[in-house]
């Protein structure tokens, strides 16, 4: 039987069910690179502080390199008896370099060690999310560039409202994902904190130098309070919130694509590479990528809720409950990275169909606001103009026409203010072109947004 590292005071061996219950190595083994980097920085610091000789530090650092190579090569035997990645790595180090390996854990606890490893891991993943978010913004931007002139029936309440440029719609998503990237970068500032030197909870009697470890690892800050350092998981929660927000934005777009790809809409054609067929219905081309993404969003929210619940009743400082921080994050990380990759891959393959979008304008009376604004500009109080236009819509609907198909004399029955210049403003293109207000759907604003997003991508 393996001897436990903490086994000095124990007479009985751990129950098999307990061992299986408490181990984390089956999933935290993926932190081995971070664990080894952290230990090497710790060993160098111990040497600089005169605690290890330079020769001892070199032996430890090289021994850890050897352990990493074994793991990289798949030649490492992970042992459940050693609970977690930290003790698996350390015990192998000691096998390789002898009792000197046991000096590594001086002035350190697994409590500050695991916090460091996980911070390094979460930080690296956040960097990747940021990159993938850039790819997604670039893909939305590229589609938007092709569709400045394409008219989309803009909706509120998912009812036809006013015509917009399809580019404007796609650029709204650029804003969402740019905010997500900003959130990720901001979060990184609080993740990139070195907790090493907090030891178990109270600091240590050894003359350590946490600042040296921080700078060795290239982190931004050192912990200020050892109790906070070992018990804080805000960084995981913030990252999980970031991932949830990203998924929410992806999911909203997926929902639109699912609707638009339905032939009753026919606004978009899906790329074969991101669709699937049916085993029974030969005509089917299903938007599975979007459906899966919409579904996985719930799962990422679940990770955020799990962690919020895990920490809510924890007294200071480290509690073993905190071991539950890893699986939700690993799962959310995998999901958000794959989702962003799929979205960036699928977007260029979406074929929007401007003709079907244009054909719905008339049915939805998307130029009704234009008529009301036209009357208001002629001095008719807007509330009255609204009412007049409503009556005209009712007539057009009865005749199965658009407002622009009514005759001038029909229109003039509703208001003598209506002249034959009304037909210019009833054009859907004009409705978009005339919306020159800042941030609106007019071409001036859309082109300015395209430039700003391009600039953001270049920075
Ligand atoms: N596997 C543990 C975790 O993930 C490492 C820290 C264990 N610390 C302890 N005092 N048992 O949280």
TrEMBL record:
The EC number(s) this enzyme carries: 4.3.2.1
Protein's name in the database: Argininosuccinate lyase
Q: Which Pfam family is one of those matched by this entry? A: ASL_C2
Q: Subcellular location, in the record's words?
A: Cytoplasm
Q: In which pathway does it act?
A: Amino-acid biosynthesis; L-arginine biosynthesis; L-arginine from L-ornithine and carbamoyl phosphate: step 3/3
Asked whether the keyword Amino-acid biosynthesis is assigned, the reply is: yes
Q: Which GO terms describe its molecular function?
A: argininosuccinate lyase activity
Q: Which PROSITE patterns match?
A: FUMARATE_LYASES
Q: What is the lineage of its organism?
A: Bacteria, Pseudomonadati, Thermodesulfobacteriota, Desulfovibrionia, Desulfovibrionales
Q: Which reaction does it catalyse?
A: 2-(N(omega)-L-arginino)succinate = fumarate + L-arginine
- The entry's keywords: Amino-acid biosynthesis, Arginine biosynthesis, Cytoplasm, Lyase
- Similarity remark: Belongs to the lyase 1 family. Argininosuccinate lyase subfamily.
- CDD domains associated with the record: Argininosuccinate_lyase (cd01359)
**Keyword Amino-acid biosynthesis tagged:** yes
